[in-house]
């Protein structure tokens, strides 16, 4: 018989802007498939009243409840691509109060929260109910600020979550290392559960008949300091010198978009570096299928689900050593995010050697196919079992 899990999130398809929303869906649906009963709580600016409830279904039709709480919280970039510009700390506190009220009469065995935005809600419910709490860490303030000075209030909230959680799930060994070394979280408290993959190209045949005679190198992700887009442009300059017909595509939005546009213009790359904005569904499929190389030069990347998506499409991937996805794609080209010389040389080799590029793409596709949310859910359930057994004495 399945356990009742109260899961608190802050982004979920179709309203998502990055990997956390996709990860949350993969986790929830596979836990439901494996017999767990999930009550998922999410913020929504579209909720017509303070709280509303829907029934969602897993791919095989198994139901799970979603409670929407009216809240100003939204993904980093919403469904419409507009950046969130609210008072995030205050909105997180308000969300916590509303979540607590919305679930006050719910019965559940365990609380599962995702990242710092859900910590205040999880803490309040844990304090009131005494139920064990799992904190799923997809990203830390250290990652989001690329190792720089982060928001102190956010860091304090994160630390409260790490301290109070009965178990912490990290999306990679890299993230566990950050938690242990930067946040002094006890090693034994952190369990590594790599993200899975549920990306399937759109069912309809998509046209990739664009930029036919040009090598295409892509960057997919938020345009923020964490993701290292400036290194993508530095690499593009060097590749352009040798192969000026190459086209570089940024697929994503973020607070660095205007700066990157200016940098590419001043570098003489205006017609070579394209800004496609945040892509989903068929547009994303077209880009993956047309790409010759995928590059993820993140400064600090807990995982990197977009690299898995590109790998499923058979695109060779170049990723930074400071990324979790490098742990599950052994055939990926891994290098230091700042080493744009080596990055450019690696990309030129892939562009110029078609057999090498195709062979590497097939290896990557095979590795990505073995990475599933089903396996991730099995590990998460094992942690649930251990916590609940301890809790019951």
Task: Give structural notes.
This protein has 393 residues and is α/β, with parallel strands linked by helices. The chain has two domains: 4-195 and 372-391, Glycogen Phosphorylase B (Rossmann fold), CATH 3.40.50.2000; 216-369, Rossmann fold (3-Layer(aba) Sandwich), CATH 3.40.50. Helix content is 40%, strand content 18%. The chain is built from 13 helices and 14 strands. Strands 3-4-2-1-5-6-7-8 form an eight-stranded mixed beta sheet, with helices on both faces. A six-stranded parallel beta sheet has the order 11-10-9-12-13-14, with helices on both faces. Strand 5, helix 3 and strand 6 form a beta-alpha-beta unit. The longest helix has 19 residues, at 373-391. The radius of gyration is 21 Å and the shape is globular.
What distinguishing features does this structure have?
eight-stranded mixed beta sheet; single chain; 393 residues
CATH class of the largest domain: Alpha Beta
**In the CATH scheme, what's the topology name of the largest domain?**
Rossmann fold
The main pleated sheet reads as: 8 strands, mixed
By secondary-structure content and strand pairing, the structural class works out as alpha/beta
């Amino acid at each position: 018989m399945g356990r009742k899990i109260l899961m608190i999130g802050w982004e979920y398809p179709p309203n998502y802007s990055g990997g956390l929303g996709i990860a949350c869906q993969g986790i929830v649906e596979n836990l439901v498939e494996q017999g767990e009963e999930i009550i998922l709580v999410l913020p929504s600016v579209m909720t017509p009243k303070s709280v509303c409830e829907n029934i969602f279904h897993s791919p095989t039709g198994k139901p799970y409840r979603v409670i929407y709480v009216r809240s100003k919280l939204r993904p980093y970039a919403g469904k419409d691509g507009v950046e969130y510009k609210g008072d995030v700390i205050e909105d997180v506190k308000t969300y916590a109060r509303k979540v607590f009220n919305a679930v006050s009469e719910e019965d559940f065995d365990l609380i599962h929260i995702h990242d710092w935005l859900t910590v205040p809600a999880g803490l309040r419910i844990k304090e009131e109910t005494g139920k064990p709490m799992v904190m799923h860490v997809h990203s830390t303030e250290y990652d989001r600020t690329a190792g720089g000075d982060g928001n102190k209030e956010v860091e304090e909230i994160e630390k409260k979550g790490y301290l109070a959680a009965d178990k912490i799930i990290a999306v990679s060994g890299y993230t566990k290392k950050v938690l242990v070394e930067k946040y002094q979280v006890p090693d034994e408290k952190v369990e590594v559960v790599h993200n899975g993959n549920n990306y399937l190209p759109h069912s309809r045949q998509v046209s990739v008949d664009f930029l036919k005679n040009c090598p295409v190198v892509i960057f997919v992700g938020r345009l923020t300091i964490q993701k290292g887009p400036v290194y993508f442009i530095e690499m593009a300059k060097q590749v352009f010198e040798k192969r000026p017909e190459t086209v570089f595509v940024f697929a994503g939005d973020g607070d660095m978009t205007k700066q990157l546009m200016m940098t590419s213009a001043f570098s003489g790359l205006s017609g070579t570096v394209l800004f496609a904005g945040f892509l989903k569904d068929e547009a994303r499929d077209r880009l993956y299928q047309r790409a010759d190389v995928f590059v993820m030069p993140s400064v600090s990347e807990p995982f990197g689900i977009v690299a898995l998506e590109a790998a499923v499409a058979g695109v060779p991937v170049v990723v930074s050593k400071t990324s979790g996805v490098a742990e599950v794609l052994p055939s990926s080209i891994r290098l230091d995010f700042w080493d744009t010389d080596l990055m450019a040389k690696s990309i030129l080799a892939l562009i110029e050697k078609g057999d090498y590029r195709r062979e590497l793409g097939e290896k990557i596709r095979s590795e990505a196919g073995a990475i599933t949310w089903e396996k991730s859910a099995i590990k998460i359930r094992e942690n649930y079992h251990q916590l609940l057994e301890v809790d019951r004495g």
